[in-house]
Write a structure and sequence with these properties.
This protein is mostly beta strands and about 130 residues long. The protein is about 15% helix and about 45% strand. Keywords: Signal.
């Protein structure tokens, strides 16, 4: 039991560190499932304040998400910019550079699901 608790605490710390890309962004890991084989499926909430951005980054697997609150501009390399609002969903292919910026004068909140290679960091900054 103690070992399992330590693993959960270690995962939470690592996930928060991997997701923290710019000051003022709040990321809350909710759950991690070691599935499918060789991958982790991670569910998290990301909140970006008005005028803020997640910062250009990639994931070693797919990201799919749902906008819970506010609006955002989703910039995915090779695709036209998309403006999403609460109730919209999105998908980002594995390894593709992307950014999310809060649109307008309100903060935005998304629920993200990542299916990523478990041997790699959840997120990596991109130029």
């Amino acid at each position: 039991m103690f070992k399992k608790t330590l693993l959960v605490l270690a995962f939470t710390g690592l996930a928060v560190a991997a997701l923290a890309q710019q000051p003022g962004i709040k990321r809350t890991p909710l759950q991690k499932v070691e599935f499918p084989d060789g991958y982790n499926t991670i569910t998290a909430i990301a909140e970006v304040p008005a005028g803020g951005a997640a910062g250009r980054h990639t994931h070693p697997g797919i990201e799919t998400g749902y906008v819970l609150e506010g609006e955002l501009n989703l910039l995915i390399d090779g695709q036209p910019e998309k403006t999403l609002k609460a109730g919209d969903s999105y998908q980002i292919p594995a390894g593709v550079v992307h950014d999310a910026k809060a649109h307008g004068d309100k903060a935005m909140k998304v629920l993200g699901v990542y299916v990523v290679d478990k041997t790699k960091p959840l997120a990596s900054p991109a130029p």
